[in-house]
What we know:
disordered N terminus, 2-enoyl-CoA Hydratase, Chain A, domain 1, 6-stranded mixed β-sheet, alpha+beta
Amino acid sequence: MIKQTxxxxxxxxxxxxxxxGTAQNNNSETYRQLNLFGDVxxxxxxxxxxxxxxxxxxxxxxxxMLTSLDPHSSYLNPKNFRDMQVQTRGEFGxxxxxxxxxxxxxxxxxxxxxxxxxxxGLKPNDLITHLDGEKVQGLTLSEAVERMRGKVGSDLKLTIxxxxxxxxxxxxxxxxxxxxSVRSRMEGEDIGYIRITxxxxxxxxxxxxxxxxxxxxxxxxxxxxxxxxxxxxxxxxEQSVKVSDTFLNRxxxxxxxxxxxxxxxxxxxxxxxxAEGLPIVLLMNGGSASASEIVAxxxxxxxxxxxxxxxxxxxxxxxxxxxxxxxxxxxxxTARYYTPSGRSIQAKxxxxxxxxxxxxxxxxxxxxxxxxxxxxxxxDNPNRDASPKTPNAPKDGETAEPENPQDYQLSxxxxxxxxxxxxxxxxxx
Length: 429
């Protein structure tokens, strides 16, 4: 026991002594604070009402230190570290939900497409207050996430607080979450749709393949691309840079600024636009965070894409995973990132170029109105019989139904791309 405490003290002291600047000049105060920690540690170990292992106490102290910094810094024990590595590769166990902490509660950043949490109807900004009837207040984010994980096929009851309604319970069955981070399809014959659910190790490759498939499917009719980043919680910085580079010929993609000036980084695009200049509309909402905001910010600043939807989450910080040999790892916020124009979106988010709230579209029945061809004695149209009929034209008394009535934002994105193509064609472009 004493040996473990001394080892920990030696490690902590070693870290302190390597800190730059004022930390080296205040070693006496630092050692006084470390002695305070040691005194509290010994008191808890000796007098706490229940026996607590040294490992649990030290792990809790480390996690408390990190979580006090910001909501995204935390300690990952060996199991959580392994789970995180699996997640970035695109497969992990659990509910299928990206979360953070807010006011002591677990806050939903976004559910992941086609997962138990998504099918259960969880939404961005939902607050999870209880897990199986136990309060989450007092738990760290890592502890809460650990409790949400469990045996595949087992159920977990979540108590949810959602704006505008009373707290309610939802039961979710745990499953193996396999993430296909990129999906694509044609919308009609002329618009390509690419959905990015997260930024894992294969995302950039998936986007490039999707563009090739869409071009092959549309042949020479492709008029534009919809890049759907809604409810995308982020992921790997490297992948967000590569995805941005897929659509940019040159210029800065993103920069990071750390506490030490020399540790800042700039990422620039390489020549080559896989979309070959096709118009792009990016869809975003409050569940679009981190890496997805980097992509949107880069394409928006370079005027390479039009951002449509609602304001994004606003996570403008970068976390570094620092492995601790035999002891898991720490997730530490090490930098802020800035868009090419120098914007920090931390706690602000990316404002869309065109605000479009999600809505439900319904047919509206209108009274039959008199038209020119109903009038007695009207002039005939010499080309009347030769005029081509408009496919799927609405009948009298109703409006034309959108291509995707269940997804209003996507319908508006498609309309915009077709309008851009139409006016480009009229200008001879």
